[in-house]
């Protein structure tokens, strides 16, 4: 079976078992502070497992794209070196939300693997949880009895908490799990060593293919377990590993999931696969990483220097580094693999097809940039090695290259090794550890358990219609962040909008009798609207008046609505390839990132401004469609963004011809925005531009400030018309420059005669003209070349202190160059006398310095070098 058939067979099987087949969630996670990337199939169902959201179905199945490169699920350094670790992978999964449990999960797993995929039963093993005295959880006898129907006792193994007790995190839903393993070894190997002894022993051919998790507990912050109100099933089967087993391969990379990419890498590089170990590793790294990079960009995550963007950039640079080191690649290479990937996986994941142009543009620019970084790093490393008298590069130097210049440690080790120089890896590891500890210390957040006052599934949001209501507290907890304590409160219903979709959260107050709690921020987490307050109330059972700071919200709403209008205007002026790639909406300003491959011209920005302001004056009223189906929204022409996960019901916002799916707070009409003004436009990342803009009061203040600035400029230049005044000023400057140039030329002629007259001829017949003057750099060169033109065998050495900065120039006639002298070498050595450096050609070179007092010594040194050479 081909990979596409295997995936489809899995989905069809569970569809026949009354499972709802759901699409993959984006690989890049939004609106969840605990995750950057989807790292397991269950992520999109987390709120259901936590009880924060009702289940939309009792049974579900899907093929989920995942990424594991950070946190405890970090497989990055293994990728390429073994046969089964990956950054981006697909997870096949089936779920039960309070419906079936262990018996059905195990029965159906066996039916699919044995009856449908026809896997040999003697190669299958199952593991179950051995139990934990510390947690008070006995051995999973229920799962054991289920497996006894299919497997002999010696193929059912027990495992500890590490292998057979699955936990979402330090707190939250958890439970015993049962893993299914498969023995891929040849018969001769199986006869020598029984497969049972190799299960969970990191043998590359005795591998886990499916994990059946039985969620029945909730881990509290103090570590103890509570039974969940409903039992759930969460299974995950590695798609690439399943393909390896079914296609009877010994490596995931030998399946048709990867062979098209590896074949293309081989073709482009000119190296055959399976001829050299490290070249093979490089090809596997590249094949894996280009998938992770492309899917991330398609889901809206651009490479950058922060958070998720940094992870993607790190993956991309790892691939470039392997191509550079082992495949001799010196030009953008990964970008050439994108068409192969799109052809291979585009039918299953449409976002790859839609985003192909952007993916290629971003990868190409990132590759070009990092190849320059590698070249710079190699030059810096050469300098470090030239001064390395001990024969070992210090850990701090290696870390400087890695942390400041992005130069990989293993490449430092490789290049140094070629010159028999060692790298202090222990010292490097210590520096890296210090950096991680600094990062952890800056990001440590300790959250206590929720104190439940009212058990509710979610906090009802009424903020679209009201800004002040009566509410009561349903739960609260204490949070420590960087040793600062704050408190989080959830109300049974709330008018406060939680930070989501780029729009900042509301602020305001909770009032009960004479007590006022200031709401300093509102966030959305696990389907709960959380109000961050400065202190806790005296009476938790009291009824509170929850009131949003309406003035602040209205400014934020105006900026949000303006963002929608600007998005439409950008697509109208620049083209329909423009898509939102990120946004920030605050009361003070808006920031909008969008896909576009070149700078937006001033004229285009002015056109966008005019369109938005025209729509503001038209005063289009908000048309809101709550609880639309996706099909209804599409029919009305709503814009759909790749990388967004939409539910069955969506909210559609319409202002005139602008129609978008959006859950944020908006103005009641475009006229309430008042005015729109773009402040700046620039590059955000490869293939992505960024606009910052303001509206309403802030745009008005900006206009007043601009008027005041123009008035001040007019006053300074003595003109009522700024443009005419500046033109006149430029004319005056040009006339003065002409006069200055004439004075300079006259003085240069005098200095030329003086230098020529004072020139000294050596015993070898060579003339040395030297002197120190307070002249501009351009005069140094003019005078030197004029002297050189009039004397055959001459060395001209001139020093100058101009504007407080010392400069040395050396010019040599062709006859002296023929004797082995070089002006560049002379200034480089002489400049040390004034704490400087420089260089140039053999005929003419200059050097600057930090110490003006050393200019006389520098001139003397240069004269000395010339005389010694003659």
Task: Describe the protein in words.
The protein is an alpha+beta fold and 870 residues long. Helix content is 40%, strand content 26%. It is built from 25 helices and 36 strands. Strands 1, 2, 5, 6, 7, 8, 9, 10 and 11 form a nine-stranded mixed beta sheet that branches. Helix 14 packs across helix 16, helix 17 crosses helix 18 (602-618) and helix 20 (696-717) crosses helix 21.
Task: Give the helix/strand class.
Answer: alpha+beta
Low-confidence blocks of residues: none
Helix percent reads 25-40%
Basic shape: globular
Profile the largest sheet: 9 strands, mixed
Radius of gyration: 35 Å
DSSP, total strands: 36
Q: N- to C-terminal separation?
A: 81 Å
Q: Count of helical segments?
A: 25
Mean pLDDT across all amino acids? 91
* Percentage beta strand: 25-35%
Q: Keyphrases for this structure?
A:
single chain; 870 residues; alpha+beta; six-stranded antiparallel beta barrel
Give me the secondary-structure topology:
Elements: H1 3-15, E1 20-21, H2 46-50, E2 59-67, E3 69-70, E4 73-74, E5 88-97, H3 102-116, E6 124-129, H4 141-148, E7 156-159, H5 161-164, E8 165-167, E9 172-183, H6 187-192, E10 206-219, E11 225-238, H7 239-246, H8 259-269, H9 277-298, H10 307-326, H11 338-345, H12 350-354, H13 356-386, E12 392-393, H14 395-405, H15 409-418, E13 422-423, H16 425-443, E14 445-447, E15 451-452, E16 460-461, E17 468-481, E18 484-491, E19 493-494, E20 508-512, E21 515-525, E22 528-533, E23 543-548, H17 550-574, E24 580-585, E25 590-595, H18 602-618, E26 623-629, H19 630-635, E27 649-655, E28 658-661, E29 676-685, E30 688-695, H20 696-717, H21 722-758, E31 760-761, E32 767-773, H22 777-790, E33 794-802, E34 805-812, H23 814-818, H24 823-830, E35 836-840, E36 844-849, H25 855-869
Parallel strand pairs: 1-2, 6-7, 12-13, 16-19, 32-33
Antiparallel strand pairs: 2-5, 3-4, 5-11, 6-9, 8-9, 9-10, 10-11, 14-17, 15-17, 17-18, 17-23, 18-22, 20-21, 20-23, 21-22, 24-25, 25-30, 26-27, 27-28, 29-30, 31-32, 33-34, 34-36, 35-36
Helix pairs in contact: 3-4, 8-9, 9-10, 9-13, 10-13, 14-16, 17-18, 20-21, 21-22, 24-25
């Amino acid at each position: 079976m081909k990979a596409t058939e295997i995936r489809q067979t899995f989905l069809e099987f569970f569809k026949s078992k009354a499972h709802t087949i759901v699409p993959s969630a984006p690989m890049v996670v939004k609106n969840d502070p605990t995750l950057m990337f989807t790292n397991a199939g269950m992520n999109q169902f987390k709120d259901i497992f936590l009880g924060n959201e009702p289940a939309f179905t009792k049974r579900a199945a899907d093929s989920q794209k995942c990424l594991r490169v950070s946190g405890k699920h970090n497989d990055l350094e293994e990728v390429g070196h073994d046969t089964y670790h990956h950054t981006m992978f697909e997870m096949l999964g089936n779920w039960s939300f309070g419906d079936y449990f262990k018996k059905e999960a195990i029965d159906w797993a066996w039916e699919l693997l044995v009856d449908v995929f026809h896997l040999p039963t003697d190669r299958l093993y199952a593991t179950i949880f051995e139990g934990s005295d510390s947690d008070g959880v006995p051995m999973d006898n229920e799962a054991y009895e289920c497996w006894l129907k299919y497997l002999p006792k010696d193929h059912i193994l027990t495992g500890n908490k590490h292998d057979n007790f699955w936990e979402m995190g330090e707190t939250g839903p958890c439970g015993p799990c049962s893993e299914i393993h498969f023995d891929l070894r040849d018969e001769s190997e199986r006869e020598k060593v029984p497969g049972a002894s190799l299960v969970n022993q990191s043998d590359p051919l005795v591998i886990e293919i499916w994990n059946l998790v039985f969620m029945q507990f909730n881990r509290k912050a103090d570590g103890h377990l509570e039974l969940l109100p409903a039992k759930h099933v969460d299974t995950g089967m590695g798609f690439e590993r399943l393909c390896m087993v079914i296609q009877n391969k010994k490596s995931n990379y030998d399946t048709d999931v990867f062979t098209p990419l590896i074949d293309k890498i081989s073709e482009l590089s000119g190296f055959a696969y399976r001829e050299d170990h490290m070249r093979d590793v490089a090809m596997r790294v590249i094949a894996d990483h280009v998938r992770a990079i492309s899917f991330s960009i398609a889901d809206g995550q651009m490479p950058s220097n922060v958070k998720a963007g940094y992870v993607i950039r790190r993956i991309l640079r790892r691939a470039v580094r392997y191509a550079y080191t082992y495949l001799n690649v010196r030009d953008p290479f990964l970008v050439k693999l994108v068409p192969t990937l799109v052809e291979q996986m585009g039918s299953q994941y449409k976002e790859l097809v839609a985003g192909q142009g952007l993916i290629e543009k971003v990868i190409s620019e990132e590759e070009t940039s990092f190849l320059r970084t590698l070249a710079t790093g190699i030059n810096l490393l050469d300098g470090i090695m030239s001064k390395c008298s001990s024969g070992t590069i210090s850990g701090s130097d290696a870390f400087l290259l890695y942390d400041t210049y992005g130069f990989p440690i293993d490449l430092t080790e490789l290049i140094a090794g070629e010159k028999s120089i060692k790298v202090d890896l222990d010292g490097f590891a210590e520096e890296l550890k210090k950096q991680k500890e600094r990062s952890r210390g800056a990001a440590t957040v300790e959250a206590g358990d929720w104190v439940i006052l009212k058990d509710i599934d979610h906090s009802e949001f009424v903020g679209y219609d009201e800004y002040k209501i009566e509410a009561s507290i349903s739960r609260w907890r204490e949070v420590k962040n960087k040793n600062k304590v704050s408190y989080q409160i959830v109300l049974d219903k709330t008018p406060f909008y939680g930070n989501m979709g780029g729009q900042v959260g509301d602020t305001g107050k909770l009032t009960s009798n004479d007590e006022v709690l200031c709401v300093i921020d509102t966030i959305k987490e696990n389907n709960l609207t959380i109000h961050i307050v400065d202190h806790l109330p005296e009476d938790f059972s009291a009824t509170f008046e929850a009131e949003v700071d309406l003035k602040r919200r209205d400014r934020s709403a105006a900026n949000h609505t303006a963002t929608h209008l600007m998005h439409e205007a950008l697509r109208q002026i620049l083209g329909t390839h423009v898509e939102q790639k990120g946004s920030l909406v605050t009361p003070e300003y808006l920031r909008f990132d969008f896909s576009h491959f070149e700078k937006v011209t001033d004229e285009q920005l002015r056109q966008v401004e005019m369109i938005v302001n025209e729509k503001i004056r038209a005063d289009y009223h908000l048309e809101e469609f709550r609880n639309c189906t996706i099909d209804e929204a599409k029919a009305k022409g709503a814009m759909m963004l790749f990388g967004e996960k939409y539910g069955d019901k969506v909210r559609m916002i319409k202002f005139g011809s602008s129609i978008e799916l959006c859950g944020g707070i908006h103005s009641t009409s475009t006229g309430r925005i008042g005015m729109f003004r773009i402040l700046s436009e620039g590059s955000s990342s490869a293939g992505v531009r960024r606009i910052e803009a303001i509206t309403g009061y802030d745009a008005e203040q900006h206009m007043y400030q601009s008027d005041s600035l123009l008035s001040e400029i007019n006053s300074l230049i003595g003109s009522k018309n700024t443009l005419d005044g500046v033109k006149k000023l430029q004319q005056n400057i040009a006339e003065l420059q002409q006069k200055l140039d004439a004075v300079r030329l006259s003085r240069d002629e005098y200095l030329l005669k003086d230098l020529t007259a004072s020139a000294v001829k050596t015993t070898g017949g060579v003339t040395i003209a030297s002197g120190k003057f307070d002249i501009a750099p351009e005069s140094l060169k003019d005078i030197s070349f004029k002297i050189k033109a009039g004397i055959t065998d001459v060395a001209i050495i001139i020093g100058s202190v101009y504007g407080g900065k010392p400069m040395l120039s050396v010019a040599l006639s062709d006859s002296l160059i023929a004797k082995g002298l070089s002006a560049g070498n002379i200034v480089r050595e002489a400049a040390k006398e004034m704490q400087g450096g420089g260089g140039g050609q053999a005929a003419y070179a200059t050097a600057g310095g930090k110490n003006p007092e050393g200019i006389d010594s520098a001139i003397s040194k240069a004269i000395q070098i010339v005389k010694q050479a003659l």
